[in-house]
Design a protein that fits this description.
Radius of gyration of chain A: 37 Å
Number of domains of chain A: 5
Shape of chain B: globular
CATH topology of chain B: Arc Repressor Mutant, subunit A
Distance between the termini of chain B: 38 Å
CATH architecture of chain B: Orthogonal Bundle
Order of helices and strands of chain B: HHHEEH
Radius of gyration of chain B: 17 Å
Strand order of the largest sheet of chain A: 4-5-10-7-9-8
Number of strands of chain A: 23
Number of strands of chain B: 2
Oligomer: heterodimer
């Protein structure tokens, strides 16, 4: 036995050198070593051996090509032929492998589209880096309120007092002033159309945003009084194939003040935070006398365009002086108690226009926002799905190792080098990867419409982008290599002699990793299942909660304000219909999207003593309470016969509590004048159940745009709608009727909740499928590994049930562990989600139990295919090679 | 093949291959050169030179038999190709030419035994 040189040096050499040179190099080294031991002794020989080994570590020994080439064209085609044969031989297995991967890729692709869209918001303005929106901050005892409603003169003051500012522009999108939705027509036709997307805007806003024009000159589109700018799609609708600039339009039948079209803009892109179709000029407009100079009411969003090379952060601090020089005098004049103290809590923040879409959490600005948190969460989910899909892919590949081991053995004996085998397995994984990408993209295309409705977007795959196809191809290669690397190394490392002798490598070393993977996947699945259950329960709660009014059988006829005085006629005509129980005229309804009017109230006579109670102040008529099915808990309803009732109000219970009224019926409340309280109405929800009920004051008044019609239960809806339509036609011949139902409007308030529910259930299904694929791979791996054991057990008399139990027990344990991990996480997350709602259902243990059972049964179902198959195979098949 | 492509060490290794044929392989050459020069010569250095010589087509190689000291591994044996032989002869001719032209007292005397 020759002396052995230090082994660690040999290992280094084996690791570094190419296979085909290793034999001669190592042989030379060992021979020299034994010579040296004889010549100079072991100690010195070791030293010299070290030098010897490192003298071999040269590039030429690391990458020197073998005389037998690994990459030749016929070999390459052979790799793919073999890969294709393997794929078509195990059809189910290949389908699972490709399908699972494709699912992951599709999900990833869709989420990436979503994120890309979210991040693209408001990037299209030429001056986007200089455009800011003014945000007001109010520190309410540590809780920072953010708000973007400002008084009309703020924009002017900013431009005039701050040399850093180039332009300022305002919009007023408030329904209270007639923005939002309106009836509109060309001046030369009679028929009105109902349109949404109206706002008041300054000429300077167009200049700031550099809105692209189709017709007209941007500089002069809104600079004259009573001008209007249309979006291209609306211009095409009202003025097809003509230039509408200079033409007249009539708003809400107001023929005395027609609007001149000043220009047509390109439609706001979908990824713009502003999206209006009708911009009415603010030039020369004042909603009441002194309104444009008043600092005591806030109805405008204000935008700033800074001059070049200005740091807005520095301007932001200087803005505080506006509070002292403009707000304070106004507050003092209006008798607001302790104005210095209030203003000390206020400050300004300048929000970059590109942040508005994603970073406006908590700002109530009549826009629909994205949320940067969703971008992060979805990004994480995309990465997570892709990683899991890759790991499953690896698992499924190694699971079939037993089948491939013999192939590897034979190939090696015939003369294949390890490099050849690695290439072959990588080629196979590339083929799978490419097929998966193709399937994934097809799947994404198929799911895109569903995903769009889920995310309330109109996403498309940007085929025309130059980077898309190369990008996808590159990802397919990279992922194919990554996912194929481990199986390739693992499978090609089999020793031919062991394999051909029938000794299979056990591969049990990595069983911990596999278990962690299963636990990870099932934990996520269970969390998502619980999430889905909780969200649906909350939905159920929302629709069956006592809300203080009767939302069923109420028809809402909208857009009646154009009728003028004829609205009363309409009401009386409708009451004549046999199905109609009550009719009420009021724009203030207990659902979102109808009119709101916040006022500060005091007990009469205490205005300058107490802090005001902010309450909604609604104009209703005497039939309002009956129509809405609201209950009076004290006092009486309005009576049209009593002239004094024009000074009367009905308040809700919360208002009574907030004002601290002992005997509300004999009190008077004050906002800008005093009102007699004649009744107290039971609390009803008029905003989302997220918020607690706020104080409310109802007074008789004129708000003629919506008629609420309470219908007798059991009426024939179809026929009723026909008769209502007929009545409408008589009263308003030139305006199409527009109606909705109260319960539908109510449901619409919770669209986002429903959407979250659908997102959760989609992800839950996805997570379960991915987890099942992983589990399927693992169970087939395990069955392969233990096939001999199973065979012996069967021979010795084990029953099918025994084998089934043996194979499933381990996985059941893993699912139970996942359950234990998932429960606290899910509980915490759902508790957090429900905290958004003041009125909410609770997370009950039953939900967890149900989710756990669902996960467990899905897991057992998945494993059982392999387990039963293993238990039913004839033992001789597994044991005949012994 | 240009002569300048043959380095000094390569030339020595090529000569050693010629001298040791048919048993010329890394270890034998390294041992031989070590004995002749008195410096430590690693088989790695010899191996590299042999690889270069083979790339230049000056030597051929084939796998020989395995021995116990090599842990049952085969050795790679080298022999000089006609191209190698030509280069060696050219080098030798040039050198001998130069030697023959040195005048008797042109070189300072040295004691070669030392």
């Amino acid at each position: 036995m020759p002396p052995r040189p230090p082994q660690w040096l040999d290992k280094i050499l084996e690791w570094v050198c190419v296979d085909h040179l290793l034999e001669e190099i190592q042989g030379d080294l060992h021979e020299r070593y034994s010579l040296r031991v004889q010549q100079v002794g072991q100690q010195k020989a070791k030293h010299l051996y070290f030098r010897e080994v490192f003298s071999y570590i040269r590039l030429s020994n690391i990458n020197r090509p073998s005389s037998t080439k690994i990459f030749t064209t016929p070999m390459f085609t052979s790799y793919f032929t073999i890969a294709w044969r393997n794929l078509s031989k195990h059809k189910l297995y290949s389908a699972i492998k490709i399908g699972g991967f494709a699912l992951g890729i599709a999900a990833c692709l869709l989420i990436m589209l979503f994120i890309r869209d979210e991040l693209s918001y408001d990037q299209h303005y030429p001056n986007k880096d200089r455009i800011y929106r003014v945000v007001g901050l109010f520190n309410d005892n540590g809780e920072i309120e953010r708000d973007v409603w400002f008084p009309a003169p703020l924009a002017g003051v900013l431009k005039q007092d701050y040399p850093e500012v180039e332009l300022t522009g305002r919009i007023n999108p408030s329904e209270l002033f007639g923005a939002g939705s309106n009836q509109i027509r060309r001046a030369d036709v009679q028929e009105n159309s109902y349109e949404e997307g109206f706002t008041y805007a300054d000429q300077s806003l167009l200049d700031i945003l550099q809105v692209p024009m189709v017709y007209g000159e941007r500089k002069h589109a809104l600079d004259k009084p009573n001008t209007i700018v249309l979006s291209k799609s609306k211009a095409d609708k009202y003025f097809p194939n003509e230039n509408p600039v200079g033409k007249l339009m009539i708003l809400n039948n107001d023929e005395k003040t027609p609007l001149t079209v000043g220009g047509v803009i390109e439609d706001f892109p979908a990824n713009s935070h502003l999206s209006y179709d009708f911009l009415i000029t603010m030039t020369g407009r004042e909603f009441w006398e002194g309104e444009q100079a008043a600092w005591n009411n806030s109805n405008y969003h204000t935008y700033i365009l800074f001059k070049k090379k200005i740091d807005p952060a520095q301007v932001q601090n200087k803005l505080l002086s506006i509070l002292d020089s403009y707000y304070l005098p106004s507050m003092k004049k209006n008798g607001v108690p302790d104005p210095e103290n209030i203003l000390a809590k206020a400050s300004f923040y300048l929000q970059p226009v590109t942040d508005i879409h994603l970073k406006s959490d908590g700002i109530h600005d009549s826009l629909t926002h994205g949320d940067i948190r969703f971008v992060y969460i979805f990004g994480a989910i995309a990465a997570f799905i892709l990683v899991i899909a890759c790991i499953n892919f690896v698992n499924l590949s190694t699971a079939k190792s037993a089948n491939r081991a013999k192939e590897v053995g034979v190939r090696k004996v015939v003369g294949s080098l390890r490099g050849n085998l690695i290439n072959q397995f990588l080629a196979e994984s590339m083929l799978f990867s490419f097929l998966s990408f193709v399937a994934g993209i097809l799947l994404a295309l198929l799911l895109l419409p569903y995903f769009n409705s889920l995310s309330a977007k109109t996403l498309t795959i940007p085929w025309q982008a130059w980077w898309l196809l190369p990008g996808i191809a590159l990802s397919a290669v990279v992922i194919g290599l990554l996912a194929g690397f481990y199986p390739a190394l693992y499978l090609s490392s089999f020793k031919p002699i062991d394999v051909l002798k029938g000794k299979l490598s056990r591969g049990s070393k990595s069983s911990l990793t596999r278990s962690v993977l299963v636990v990870f996947q099932f934990t996520t699945s269970i969390i998502l299942i619980v999430g889905t259950f909780v969200i649906y329960r909350q939905m159920n709660y929302i629709f069956h909660q006592k809300i203080g009014f009767d939302k069923d059988q109420v028809l809402l006829i909208q857009g009646a304000h154009t009728l003028g005085d004829k609205v009363k006629t309409l009401k009386n005509e409708l009451l004549r219909l046999p199905e109609v129980k009550h009719v009420s005229i009021s724009d203030y309804l207990p659902v979102k999207g109808t009119k709101r009017n916040g006022n500060g109230f005091w007990i009469d006579g205490r205005k300058n003593i107490d802090k005001d109670v902010s309450a909604q102040f609604w104009q209703v008529d005497e039939n309002y309470l009956q129509t809405m099915g609201m209950k009076l808990v004290a006092g009486r309803n309005f009576s049209p016969q009593l002239a004094s009732d024009s000074q009367a109000v009905i308040i809700n219970e919360t208002m009574v509590r907030k004002l601290g009224l002992k005997d509300p019926l004999n009190q008077r409340v004050f906002n800008w004048k005093a009102w007699n309280v004649i009744g107290v109405v039971e609390d009803f929800h008029f905003e989302s159940l997220r918020d607690s009920i706020q104080p409310i004051v109802l007074a008789l008044g004129n708000s003629p745009s919506i008629l609420s019609v309470k219908i007798n239960a059991g009426s024939d809806m179809q026929q009723l709608l026909q008769s209502v339509n007929k009545v409408w036609r008589e009263v308003a011949p030139y305006q199409p009727i527009r109606y909705t139902f109260l319960d539908e409007s109510y449901a619409r308030m919770y669209d986002d909740v429903q959407r979250t529910g659908r997102v959760f259930s989609s992800f839950a299904i996805l997570a379960i499928i991915v987890a099942c694929l992983g589990l399927y791979g693992l169970s087939s791996f395990m069955v392969e590994q233990r096939s001999k054991e199973i065979g012996i057990r069967l021979v010795l008399g084990a029953s099918v049930q025994n084998i089934f139990g043996l194979l499933t027990l381990n996985f059941v344990r893993l699912v139970l562990i996942s359950f234990a991990i998932a429960v606290p996480i899910a509980w915490y997350l759902m508790q957090k989600w429900l905290e958004d709602f003041v009125y909410r259902t609770e997370v009950s243990p039953g939900i967890f139990l149900l989710a756990g059972l669902a996960a467990l049964s899905i897991a057992i179902f998945t494993i059982s295919y392999q387990a039963i198959r293993a238990a039913l195979t004839k033992p001789v098949n597994n044991l005949r090679t012994e | 093949m240009r002569r300048s492509d043959l380095g000094e060490f390569e030339e020595v290794v090529l000569l050693a291959v010629a001298a040791l044929t048919p048993k010329a392989y890394s270890v034998a050459i390294a041992e031989d050169l070590e004995k002749a020069t008195g410096n430590t010569i690693t088989t790695g250095a010899v191996h590299a030179a042999l690889q270069r010589l083979e790339d230049k087509g000056l030597v051929n190689s084939y796998m020989g038999e395995a021995t116990a000291e090599r842990g049952g591994r085969r050795k790679r044996l080298f022999s000089v190709t006609p191209a190698g032989s030509r280069v060696l002869h050219q080098v030798r001719t040039i050198r001998e030419n130069l030697w023959s032209r040195i005048l008797p007292h042109a070189l300072p005397k040295v004691d070669l035994a030392r």
